[in-house]
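re: ur msg from earlier - yeah i can do the iron/sulfur cluster complex, just paste it... oh wait u already did. ok heres what im feeding in:
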Amino acid sequence: MNIVIDGKSCTCEPGEFLLEVARRNGIYIPTLCNHEGLLGQGCCRVCIVEVVERGWSKTVVSCIYPVLNECEVHTNNEKIKQQRGIILRLLQKRAPQSEIIAALCKAYSAPALDKLNEKDGKCIICGLCVRACSTLGAGAIATVNRGITKEIAPPFNEPPADCIGCGSCARVCPTKAIEYHENETTRTVWEKTFTLVHCASCGAQMGTQEELNFAAEKAGTEPSTLCDACRKKQLALVMADVYSAT
Amino acid sequence: MTEEILSLITKYPKELRYALAAMQDMQRQFKHVPREGIELLAQHIGCKTAQLYSMATFYKALSLDAKGKHIIKLCDGTACHIRGANQLIDGIERLLGIAPGETSQDGLFSLELVNCLGSCAIAPVMVVDETYYSKVTLEKLPEIIDAYREVTP
Ligand code: SF4
Ligand code: FES
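and the outut:
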């Protein structure tokens, strides 16, 4: 089927998310909580657009809006710019230290909203990190409390016992709210420091020992001491041996 | 305590949907959900501590810190507020030395503020454990509270 986004005709499958259709056609819509590996979060509302369907107009959240009917979409008209500006400023009140939100506020000339109290930090409580952590299987962090005191934290507010130091939470975070440090030999996240393991053959960094153990346990094997590339090489050598022997 | 916790939680099937019920049982028995309880329950169900911690901090009916033997719920909804709930908060603070959300040193009383008990006609309302007290005044407060001190063995 066909829809029109900002005057451009775009082909799409029924049920496809509007944001994806736009992206595929090179149309930019700002997003925060949208992550390709963890679709459907839909909570920051920065990606709103206007959809006009048979003369009816509505504002929708493009990252979770499935296109079902032919329609005309406006991703950046005055109305949307204004609404997005307010949303961005509200997010900034929640996460004043976030650089990306500050930049977006500027780009969309977000209104001042001086009367509102400011919170602290960079987190917008989108929950992507929690989902990344539980999808991976470690499940070390969660949303804690509720309402205005809701936050992302490990149980009992101490370095999480279940954390394997994979760093997925920090990587998916749109506002870089999770502190994460890494050097040659160690990685620190959630105030827990892990030793990094290097490939026994080529010396490439392979992640933390806890990460390797976790993956091995899932796969029902022993944790590897070689990186992927070296393991393949070794396997090829073994194969070659087998062939030349026969 | 480990034994007591275990006997509470092993009554339930090893499924996440029974977690809340098990934690409510702990709250009832220990006046809070102990950390050990969350950890043992996670082991029992085979889920993550983080999941249960999230649940335990979400519901107001569950608390991680030990609550007092008697729970005083003071209504600070619109009607009670207008009829002087504020003074009662101060009054309780003077009597027991606790602010809303706190528990007295002797472990006898916890004070909680609630938003409306649906009894605006008898405002200001105070509930101790399961008993409702209507049109509470600063003068009546000591009497009501002392009654609970006495029933405590
Ligand atoms: S830390 Fe980042 S990913 Fe996690 S909820 Fe906050 S903003 Fe979202
Ligand atoms: S990107 Fe769509 S709601 Fe956050």
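cool cool. Chain A has two domains: 2-107, 128-240. ping me if u need the other ligands too
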